[in-house]
Amino acid sequence: MKPLLRAVLILDALLLLAFGLLFLLTPWTSLYNALLLVQTQPALVGQGFGVALIGLAWLALHASIDGALTSTVAKVVGHVNWLTGVLMLVWLLGLHTPALTGFGQIIAVLTGVVLLVVGLGGVRLSGAVRRREKVRLGEAAAAERAEKQAAKDAAKDAANKRDSARATAGFPAYRAEPVVEPVMPVTQPVSPVSAAPLHSVVDEPGLTASERAARAETAAARDDARNAAADAPGAPRPPFHG
């Protein structure tokens, strides 16, 4: 659709350039007489109108290249063309002014019809292109909003994952470790009998026979008293071993 509109703009530019040059040559009387056209009076007005048409032709040609100006300029140029065509038909067919010969009148009427058709076609094409551009811009905006929302969701998920990771790092997982029971040393009670000296004092050197006998009797009496105390009913007994 847009390439067709650009082609219409190029056609508009050529038509506007032709009419602009024709009006710019208004003082050339012989040319107008050869083309059976009526000269614009005064010539200054015709030349000023020719300069305006040439500028409009340049704008149409520039819009056919620059896509950002295509629809807008095509709409403006289209309205100018079809309004000019209607004006020419009204004056030539309705008011029969200016008075032209048969061939000149046919050429003028055909020119008015061409301007009318090309102008209306350009306006309709520009409207269609504008609607398509609006739809495309809406789709692009919707896609951009969807991308932004997806980026926000991804950032939110990443933030939630970081928070959960930090929370997990703050509370380390519990690991059950085996409890090592202390080993208590085994102690054996010392019996009263074993507490007695292994070597009796009677074996000490330097003692006389009588002293050794007295000490032996004393040790025997002490052993008998200790054994009697151990054999008593209320006396504590050592634990049983083996």
From TrEMBL:
Chain spans, region Disordered: 147-166, 202-242
Domain of life the protein comes from: Bacteria
Keywords associated with the record: Membrane, Transmembrane, Transmembrane helix
Transmembrane recorded as keyword: yes
KW Transmembrane helix (keyword) present: yes
Membrane-spanning intervals of the chain: 7-31, 43-61, 73-94, 106-127
Record field: compositional bias (Basic and acidic residues): 147-165, 212-226
Stated name of the protein: Transmembrane protein
